[in-house]
Amino acid sequence: MPAFSRLVRFLAKDGRTYYGDAILPAGVSDIAKATQARVIKGDIFGKHDVTEQVADVRLLLAPLAREDVKTVRCLGLNYEQHAKESGMPLPKYPVLFYKPVTSLGGPFDNIPVAAPAQEVEGVDYECELVAVIGKEARDVPESKALEYVLGYAVGDDVSHREWQLKRGGGQWALGKGFDGWAPFGPGIVSASIIKDPQTLHITTKLNGKTVQDSSTKDMIFGVAKTISFLSQGTTLLPGDLIFTGTPQGVGAGRKPPLWLKDGDVVEVGLEGVGTCVNKVEYIKSRPKL
After folding, report:
1. Residue 154 · residue 185 · CB < 8 Å
2. I need a labelling partner for 212 at 20 to 30 A (CA). Which of 56, 79, 174, 286 fits?
3. Within a 10 A sphere around the Cβ of 287, how many other Cβ atoms?
4. Distance, CA of 163 to CA of 157 (rounded, Å)
5. What is the pLDDT of residue 165?
6. Kind plus residue range of the DSSP H or E element containing 80
7. Pairing relation of β-strands 274-282 and 111-113?
8. How many CB atoms lie within 10 A of CB 108?
9. What is the pLDDT of the chain when averaged over all its residues?
10. pTM of the model
11. Strand locations in the chain, DSSP E?
């Protein structure tokens, strides 16, 4: 088990970037409210120590540095009610797709919408529990799968439905892989604290209004089953992220559809972990030389 309780990566007031163990006031579980952390020395996936050095947090960053992330796996249609709102049959096997590591963002980063994604409406939100693999896993039985989890975060699998469903040739990656379209955090809560990931309240707020409100118990394939399935014949590595799907309430499932617009603020939350608050930013086209 890791030595930390709530792993954060942060820019400190001394101008340096650290890994740390978030210090939270009594009764507070939202890592986003951390203003201090104990600095961690060593390999967060191996031998590391939570030191007595306390640093002031200026800004929480994505909880893993890009070089510490190996693969970003994601599940589609993994909540029963979401599959129903999508008009799709419940999948017999986990629906797997990948996002590039360049899609990752921090808990307070803007969500950049580049020119191709501005051509037509369709930018959507998806709150998700993110499982972080802590040690190499292959052919893992479901009964042992959670032993390979470093911890849990919350993320937003930002998606463009036009690019995902109509312009991707049957593949989803184009509509989900733009830069900054997988903000996650605000930290990683140790699996020693969250012992059962299937009992957590998960939400999305759009401009302060709740648009997704569910529980991870509605997952079709729970975290343990997912890890076991994905590890059959395929090695999962420390630093692999698994976005485990989104509940009902996405913009595409509404009538009329509710698409994200420039300046919108999206807040995804997971019980026991905290919240990520990200503003949608339409990127202005660069002048042609």
Report:
1. yes
2. 174
3. 5
4. 14
5. 76
6. helix 80-85
7. parallel
8. 18
9. 95
10. 0.96
11. 6-12, 17-23, 36-42, 48-61, 72-76, 95-99, 104-105, 111-113, 123-124, 127-133, 149-156, 159-160, 182-190, 201-206, 209-215, 241-243, 265-270, 274-282
